[in-house]
């Protein structure tokens, strides 16, 4: 009987293909922080909406 070996297909991802950090201009930073203080909205919801960590919007 012939020996059959299982060889799964593997996809190699490179971290160099995507930028490591986003660069926000000052106007965007101020707008996001101000939005986190508006009304009853929570900082965590604002952070999720803009794709940033909640810890960046809280003291």
DSSP strand count: 0
Q: Tally the helices: what do you get? A: 2
How would you classify the helix and strand content by structural class? mainly alpha
- Specify Rg, calculated over alpha carbons: 22 Å
The H-and-E topology, N to C, reads as HH
The average pLDDT is 80
Strand content: under 5%
Unreliably modeled segments: none
Helix content: 25-40%
State the end-to-end distance.
67 Å
Anisotropy-based shape: elongated
Largest sheet: none
Provide key terms for this protein:
about 60 residues, mainly alpha, about 0% strand, 2 helices
Structure commentary:
By secondary structure, the protein is an all-alpha fold. It has a domain at 22-56. Helices cover 34% and strands 0% of the residues. The chain contains 2 helices and no strands. The protein has helices at residues 26-37, 43-50. Helix 1 (26-37) packs antiparallel against helix 2 (43-50). The longest helix is centred in the middle third of the chain and has 12 residues, at 26-37. It is elongated, with a radius of gyration of 22 Å. The protein starts with 25 loop residues before the first helix and ends in a 9-residue tail after the last helix. 2% of the residues are buried. The model has no long low-confidence stretch (mean pLDDT 80).
């Amino acid at each position: 009987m012939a020996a059959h070996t299982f060889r799964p297909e593997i996809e190699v991802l490179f971290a160099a293909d995507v930028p490591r950090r986003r660069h926000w201009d000052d106007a965007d930073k101020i707008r996001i922080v101000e939005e986190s203080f508006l009304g009853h909205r929570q900082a965590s919801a604002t952070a999720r909406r803009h794709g940033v960590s909640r810890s960046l919007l809280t003291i």
